[in-house]
């Protein structure tokens, strides 16, 4: 390491808040913390091994000489360790009386670690994420980095320390007490009342404590609570069931406190996102702002019973991880200590927890007692009370978010009930959004990772909890990133107001089995089009990844039990953006079955990159309230939701739509018997028929937007 960098002390900022100093030595990383309450500078010590920072300080230390010896010139720089950087944006500021211009370099590859240079010299490192940018910068050069965005005049500033008042046990209406932490801004005038941001989590409120308390630095009370049955809270976790009422009761407790001004906002992501949407359906009059990221949807839409099926690995891994104790076992959740393949293949389904973790799972057992949509599931379905939602809601997700069905469900609810202040932001993001610019071989633009992610969240709370006229509610309702075009667009609605819903019809000569078949996709239904058939064997299900990611489906599409419909090469690029759906006319020789539909982009080399898919159970074709077994061989119409997307098909590429009957890592394969799926030991091989002619015009509906 060169002597210059050994002598350099970097200022460390988290979400725009000064968090101490960082200094690199040959052996260790030195960290001088800031006391969170008094905001006083502490003495320098070796950085703790378990420090909970997103910015990879140890990696920076190891590679520092590589970063500083590189020539930061041109449009792209490849470092000697193979890291690739591209010229991104610039910042200008007056430094020591002179106008200076910095250069931000965007990291390409994995999780973003961007670099800022000034005249070819490294002055800052930063990692954006959903909670805010973590950044180290040479003192005095802050305004030449994305920290400049936090200086927006109408944005709440970090003017306060944090007074950690510790834990309270807050009683719910049934007497169960929930462990609840309270953080207040330190330095308020006596008697000052402040708005509150509430977070309710199933993952132990201590896990993200340092992150959530940062809102207190900016003038908010922060209340962080374990949901019932988790971490230090009393009661039993019944996923989804109690979140509406517990949210309401917690808000009641907040507004009764002497420091509360009566205004409450909520933030949540994933299951925490379900929690905030459920609270919104309580209609509590003091809930005035909600930020909902990548939210889990209602059970029959997104989780336990996705599309009416019985969800396999995504839900099973989560449920097992919650069932070994009161704190989540993330090694189970991540598929480390429980083998996903073994888990989804185990039978009977009801006994899988006992086989995998050696004990029963309360939620799994309870769900197995409710194999059909009943009052239990109605209480878990937030759209059953969508008419109660009045709160301004900011929805955030992305094309590779596995819970995007829940996000779409939420947005449909807000639209149906015309919630006035609703906003949506959709990026080329995963369930952990705003992380990387490349995913499974698909490359996005440098601006796919944004620097204002947490700033927009704070602006939402500022507008509706502090009444700051920052204009966020006057901006276009929808902001979305178009993959392939690789740029952001805005619209007055989502699906974009300018989108034209355009049908693409299935056709062929009756041999659409696999990508080698004759299945066609066209703008008009074919005059003479023969139905396609395939054999579905529950013992041999399709084993795609089960994740919502740009997986190459090419190898799967060689199976004879997938019928494939492909357009001619496009003469010009085609851009779609919005909510998708499909209408298929199909028959089965079984009493029940599943249908899996997928949209993909096929390039000149034959790679078939999945864009959107979904799965539905046939018995619910008339609605969840009206399950009806099939008449074998009878053609039925299925209206199928598909996950949202914004994507440009390049000229020469082809549009592909496929139908099959299984996706083992999404849902346990349907046995085709119509029996209770938790206990069914019988499986029947069936013949499936997909019809496509003038009488049965099977098609996919694509929201086509103008190219520009």
UniProtKB/TrEMBL annotation:
Domain Xaa-Pro dipeptidyl-peptidase C-terminal as annotated: residue spans: 458-701
SUPFAM superfamilies: alpha/beta-Hydrolases (SSF53474), Galactose-binding domain-like (SSF49785)
Entry keyword Transcription regulation: no
GO molecular function, one term: dipeptidyl-peptidase activity
PANTHER family attached to this UniProt entry: COCE_NOND FAMILY, PUTATIVE (AFU_ORTHOLOGUE AFUA_7G00600)-RELATED (PTHR43056:SF10), PEPTIDASE S9 PROLYL OLIGOPEPTIDASE (PTHR43056)
Signal peptide positions (record): none
KW Mitochondrion (keyword) present: no
Keywords from the named record: Hydrolase
Name listed for the protein in its UniProt record: Xaa-Pro dipeptidyl-peptidase C-terminal domain-containing protein
InterPro entries reported in the protein's UniProt record: AB_hydrolase_fold, CocE/Ser_esterase, Galactose-bd-like_sf, Xaa-Pro-like_dom, Xaa-Pro_dipept_C, Xaa-Pro_dipeptidyl-ppase/CocE
């Amino acid at each position: 390491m060169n002597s210059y960098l050994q002598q350099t002390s970097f200022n460390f900022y988290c979400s725009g808040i000064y968090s101490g100093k960082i200094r690199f030595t040959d052996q260790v990383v030195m960290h001088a913390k800031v006391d969170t309450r008094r905001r006083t500078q502490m003495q320098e010590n070796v950085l703790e091994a378990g420090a909970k920072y997103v910015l990879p300080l140890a990696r920076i230390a190891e590679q520092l000489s590589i970063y500083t010896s590189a020539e930061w010139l041109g449009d792209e720089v490849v470092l000697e360790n193979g890291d690739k950087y591209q010229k991104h944006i610039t910042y200008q500021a007056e430094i020591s009386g002179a106008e200076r211009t910095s250069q931000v370099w965007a990291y390409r590859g994995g999780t973003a670690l961007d670099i800022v240079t000034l005249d070819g010299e490294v002055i800052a490192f930063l990692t954006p994420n959903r909670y805010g940018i973590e950044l180290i910068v040479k003192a005095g050069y802050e305004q030449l980095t994305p920290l400049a965005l936090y200086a927006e005049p109408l944005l709440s500033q970090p003017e306060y320390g944090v007074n950690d008042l510790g834990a309270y046990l807050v009683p719910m209406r049934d007497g169960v007490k929930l462990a609840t932490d309270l953080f207040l801004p330190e330095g308020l005038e006596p008697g000052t009342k402040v708005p509150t941001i509430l977070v309710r989590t199933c993952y132990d409120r201590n896990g993200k404590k340092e992150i959530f308390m940062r809102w207190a630095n900016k003038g908010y009370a922060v209340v962080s609570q374990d949901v019932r049955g988790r971490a230090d809270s009393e009661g039993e976790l019944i996923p989804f069931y109690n979140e509406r009422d517990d949210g309401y009761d917690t808000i009641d407790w907040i507004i009764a406190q002497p420091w509360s001004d009566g205004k409450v906002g909520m933030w949540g992501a994933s299951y925490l996102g379900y929690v905030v949407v459920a609270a919104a359906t309580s209609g509590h009059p003091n809930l005035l702002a909600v930020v909902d990221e990548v939210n889990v949807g209602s059970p029959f839409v997104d989780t336990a019973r996705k599309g009416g099926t019985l969800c396999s690995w995504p839900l099973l891994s989560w449920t097992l991880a919650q069932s070994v104790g009161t704190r989540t076992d993330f090694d189970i959740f991540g598929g480390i200590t429980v083998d996903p393949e073994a888990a989804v293949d185990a039978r009977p389904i009801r006994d899988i927890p006992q086989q995998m973790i050696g004990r029963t799972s309360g939620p799994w057992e309870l769900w197995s007692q409710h194999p059909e949509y009943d009052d239990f599931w109605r209480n878990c379905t937030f759209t059953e009370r969508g008419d109660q939602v009045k709160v301004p809601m900011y929805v955030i997700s992305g094309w590779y978010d596995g819970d995007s069905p829940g996000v779409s469900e939420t947005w449909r609810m807000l639209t149906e009930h015309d919630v006035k202040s609703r906003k949506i932001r959709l990026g080329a993001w995963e369930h952990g959004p705003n992380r990387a610019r490349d995913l499974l071989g698909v490359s996005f633009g440098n601006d796919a990772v944004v620097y204002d992610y947490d700033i927009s969240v704070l602006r939402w709370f500022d507008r509706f909890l502090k009444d700051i006229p920052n204009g966020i509610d006057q901006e276009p309702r929808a902001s979305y990133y178009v993959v392939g075009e690789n740029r952001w667009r805005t619209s007055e609605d989502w699906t974009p107001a300018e989108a034209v819903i355009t049908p693409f019809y299935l056709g062929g000569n009756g041999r659409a089995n696999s990508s080698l078949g004759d299945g066609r996709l066209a703008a008009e239904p074919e005059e003479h089009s023969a139905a396609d058939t395939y054999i579905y064997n529950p013992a041999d299900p399709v084993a795609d990844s089960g994740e919502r990611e740009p997986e190459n489906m090419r190898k799967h599409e060689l199976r004879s039990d997938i019928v494939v419909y492909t357009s001619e090469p496009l003469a010009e690029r085609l851009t779609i953006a919005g909510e998708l759906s499909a209408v298929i006319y199909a028959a089965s020789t079984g009493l029940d079955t599943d249908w899996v539909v997928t949209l993909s982009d096929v390039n000149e080399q034959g790679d078939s990159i999945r864009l959107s898919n979904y799965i539905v159970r046939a018995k619910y074709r008339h609605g969840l309230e009206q399950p009806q077994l099939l008449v074998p061989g009878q053609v039925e119409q299925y209206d199928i939701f598909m996950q949202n997307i914004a994507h440009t098909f390049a000229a020469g590429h082809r549009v592909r739509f496929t139908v099959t009957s299984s996706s083992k890592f999404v849902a346990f394969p349907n046995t085709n018997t119509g029996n209770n799926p938790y206990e069914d030991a019988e499986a029947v091989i069936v013949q499936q028929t997909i019809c496509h002619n003038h009488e049965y015009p099977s098609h996919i509906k694509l929201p086509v937007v103008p190219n520009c």
